[in-house]
Write a structure and sequence with these properties.
With 326 residues, the chain is α/β, with parallel strands linked by helices. It has eleven helices and 13 strands. The protein is 40% helix and 16% strand. It starts with 6 loop residues before the first helix and ends in a 9-residue tail after the last strand. The N terminus is likely disordered.
């Protein structure tokens, strides 16, 4: 390692291997997020397998763009051997990573990428084809509502490139046309679909905000056809989500309302199995964290790596919910 870890960083780590030659940082959007917990676990698994690598998993306690930026700045100052970051604010993170490049620190992104104009600051992206998440969420909706209807979209951070790509994928698919640069133009009849007033809902990856937003929208729009969320935050808090969705189960069973959400965390699979949701499009966060360590090692050792490196998707509905996750 180039430097000793700070007390704060140590608190976020498993025991550091004294023989480690490389310290690679895996920076999530938030550490109170069960999705990123799986990426952390993958990172630590890679650390066990690679005798010369330490995984430093460190990020904001909750989704806070400025704190994530400060953490990355501190990692650059400390001189870690490589940084894998999931940018909460793509344009702002791009500016910060200019310092990493100047310092000779290899950078890659995972889960969420930089803006296209900043892609040269990182060597590769490991994670999901985020546009395809939106495409597949929209297809799940279309399969239940061939004639279209009204829809509310819910998303994460307004400046998060991954969620904006998912929104565009959903809008393009529902509209049957290109809706413009991410996040795409709001639908107003294209393909038979119209986005209702007050949407898309911005959650900033806050589970409480997400479930309350869904609750309010469903209560205020009794004839809503579909609710589509680009992140698992809508379903993180199992009891709260169940209480919000239960009053609408009969409508979902009858095909009058559809709720589809990104990711396939355990509680989401159970909720969908119980008929409190109609579809999930899952990522593979464990694989993202795991691969990040191997990819950074290849980069620092001068090996070529592909760009991007996609980790695949799992598409679930009420019929295949017991077998859809690989």
């Amino acid at each position: 390692m180039k430097r000793l870890l700070t007390v704060t960083a140590l608190a976020a780590l498993t025991p550091v291997m004294a023989s480690a030659e490389y310290t690679f940082a895996l920076v999530p959007k938030a550490m109170n997020n069960p999705f990123f917990d799986l990426a952390r676990d993958g990172c630590y698994q890679a650390q066990e397998e690679l005798a010369d690598v330490t995984c430093e998993y460190i990020g904001p306690g909750e989704h806070t763009e400025l704190e994530q930026i400060q953490i990355v700045q501190d990692l650059i100052t400390k001189g870690v051997d490589g940084i894998a970051v999931a940018p909460s604010n793509a344009p702002a993170m791009g500016k910060v990573l200019e310092a990493a490049v100047a310092a000779g620190i290899p950078v890659m992104t995972w889960d969420s990428d930089l803006l296209p104009e900043d892609a040269g600051l990182r060597t590769t992206y490991v994670g999901t084809n985020n546009y395809d998440i939106g495409v597949n969420l929209a297809k799940l909706v279309q399969a239940r509502h061939a004639d279209g209807g009204t829809i509310c979209l819910q998303t994460g951070g307004a400046a998060a490139a991954n969620h904006n790509e998912r929104l565009k994928g959903a809008r393009d698919t529902l509209a049957g046309m290109d809706t413009g640069t991410p996040p795409g133009k709001a639908l107003s009849g294209e393909g038979g679909w119209t986005e209702i007033s007050g949407c898309p809902l911005i959650t900033n990856d806050d589970g409480n905000v997400a479930v309350q937003g869904m609750t309010d929208i469903l209560a205020a729009n009794s004839d809503l056809t579909a609710f589509l969320s680009t992140g698992a935050f809508t379903q993180w808090f199992d009891n709260a989500y169940r209480q919000a969705a239960e009053p609408y189960k009969a409508k979902m069973d009858a095909g009058e309302l559809t709720i589809v959400v990104a990711d396939t965390l355990p509680m989401q699979l159970e909720q969908t199995r119980d008929g409190l949701g109609n579809g999930l499009v899952g990522q593979r966060p464990y694989e993202m964290g795991y691969k990040a360590m191997y990819v950074l090692k290849d980069i620092v050792e001068g090996k070529s790596v592909d760009d991007p490196i996609y980790t695949g998707l799992d598409v679930c509905d009420n019929d295949n919910i017991d077998t859809c996750v690989q």
